[in-house]
Write a structure and sequence with these properties.
This protein has eight helices and no strands. The chain is mainly α. It has one domain. The protein is globular. This is Urease accessory protein UreJ. Keywords: Membrane, Signal, Transmembrane, Transmembrane helix.
Length: about 200
């Protein structure tokens, strides 16, 4: 199977996944532990897309971005999670999460290179918002360290999957980045504008 077909199949699977739940934030305030932390990034398309997109972007730009952007994402996500865990109220966070998916989709689809400081700032701000919403809905009975470890473990795996798609040679025609970026843009716009 050639690389173009692999890229097309991967893109198709991601579009197919759009039929599932778009947002992982149901406000149920359930008690959570390690296993719930592992599952949470997979329970909403917004989280899944942003994590795969950061991995793809890091690998498509290459160089120090390859390790820097995923590392910044994990650190900022943990920081956002910590703020959510202690109960600080942040207004408009769902709008920010939706915007992050839209914005990173556009960046990815046009293969935008930018100064390292700006790229780090964007990734950190996006990750902070996703980390915050991961944690903000937890009840007081939640096991915070276990949940944090769970969602950071899955986040690391999703970042690595995004990077692996590029590093395996699937992006020689840039089709995967373009298609995946377009998917992120569509989902982000749908979340942002309530479509």
């Amino acid at each position: 199977m050639n690389k173009q077909k692999i890229s097309s199949y991967f893109s198709f699977l991601m579009f197919l996944g759009a039929s599932f739940s778009v947002s992982a934030h149901n406000g149920t305030n359930a008690s959570h532990g390690f296993s719930e932390g592992l599952i949470h990034p997979l329970s909403g398309f917004d989280h899944l897309l942003i994590m795969l997109a950061v991995g793809l972007w890091a690998a498509s730009v290459g160089g120090r971005y390859l390790w820097l952007l995923p590392s910044v994402f994990l650190i900022a996500m943990a920081a956002g999670g910590a703020v959510g865990f202690i109960g600080v109220e942040v207004g408009g966070i769902e709008t920010w999460v939706a915007f992050s998916v839209l914005a990173l989709g556009i960046i990815l689809s046009i293969n935008q290179r930018m100064p390292t400081g700006i790229a780090i700032g964007l990734v950190a701000a996006f990750a902070w918002g996703h980390g915050y919403v991961h944690a903000a809905e937890l009840s007081s009975g939640a096991s915070v360290p276990a949940y944090l470890l769970g969602f950071l473990t899955t986040t690391t795996a999703l970042l690595a999957i995004g990077m692996a798609a590029k590093l395996s040679g699937m992006l020689t025609q840039k089709a995967l980045c373009t298609n995946f970026g377009a998917l992120c843009s569509v989902v982000g716009a749908a979340l942002l504008f309530g479509i």
